[in-house]
Amino acid sequence: MKKLLFPLVLLLLTACGSSRKVKVTGVEIPVARYEISEMYLERLGYTVSFNPETNIPNWVAWELNPERLIERESRSDRFVPDPDISVRRAITTEEYKGSGWDRGHMCPAGDNRWHWRAMDESFYMTNICPQNHNLNRGDWKELEEACRRWASVEPVYIVCGPILYDVPKYGYIGKQHQIRVPDAFFKVVLTGVESGRPRAVGFIYKNESGNYKRDKYVNSVDEVERITRLDFFSALPDAVEERVESRYVLSEWP
């Protein structure tokens, strides 16, 4: 895929000692390394690749920055079918009732309190996966809160989504539609792009109960790419992408 040039310009400006602010957009959008079934949907607060075969996202990507941490809206809690999908095909919250699984946000509502439409769209069912209750309310939530801490310093670029084993561990839920239950979840985070000190980290969470420290879940972005077959942060210059994705230092992500 052709590389975008804006991150390279940013790094050159930083190397030259320029204090000029450079706006970076789109670096969070991943590229699939395999043929993927998707509906590409752009929202105010995030972008989603929704899979109409599994009825869950392939991935959800968004930028989180200090401006988006300003809380102007309360949590909606109104899960609704995605209006860009036909009524016949759209997933409703009824599909989850009695399943034993939470309606787990990929892009969390807590990242979208900066605008009423962003909040409403975070409850579209195309942004939701069946998720273990303890994970959703526990370790996964703690990672979401950590991302907001990191974003209070400078922008972070986040991609997350389900991991599906070739032989499903949990199978499917749904009354009108078959919704694949993820076997695990991934999240990758990039920051430091604007300051010229980029770093990235990846996480993998099994879709099960547990109360563990973050070091149990941490991985390099390269490892998450190997498992998901997605190419993350490919808009970065090759040398920068290779460096930040091959390593992580957990102490840099307090």
Verbal overview:
With 254 residues, the protein is α+β, with helices and mostly antiparallel strands. The chain has two domains: 1-27 and 233-248, no CATH class; 30-182 and 216-231, Extracellular Endonuclease, subunit A (Extracellular Endonuclease, Chain A). It is 20% helix and 24% strand. The protein is built from six helices and 13 strands. The strands form four sheets. A seven-stranded antiparallel sheet has the order 2-3-4-7-10-11-12, sandwiched between helices. Strand 2 and strand 3 form a beta hairpin. The two termini are 34 Å apart.
Query: Major sheet, described briefly?
Result: 7 strands, antiparallel
Q: How does the overall form come out from the CA principal axes?
A: globular
Structural class: alpha+beta
Provide a count of the helices: 6
Give Rg in angstroms: 18 Å
Q: Identify low-pLDDT runs.
A: 1-21
- Annotated CATH homologous superfamily of the largest domain: Extracellular Endonuclease, subunit A
Order of helices and strands: HEEEEEHEHHEEEEEEHEH
What's the CATH architecture of the largest domain?
Answer: 3-Layer(aba) Sandwich
Number of domains: 2
Mean pLDDT equals 92
Strand residue percentage? 15-25%
Summary of the model, kept short:
Helix content is 20%, strand content 24%. It has 254 residues and is α+β, with helices and mostly antiparallel strands. A hairpin with a 7-residue loop joins strand 10 (184-191) and strand 11.
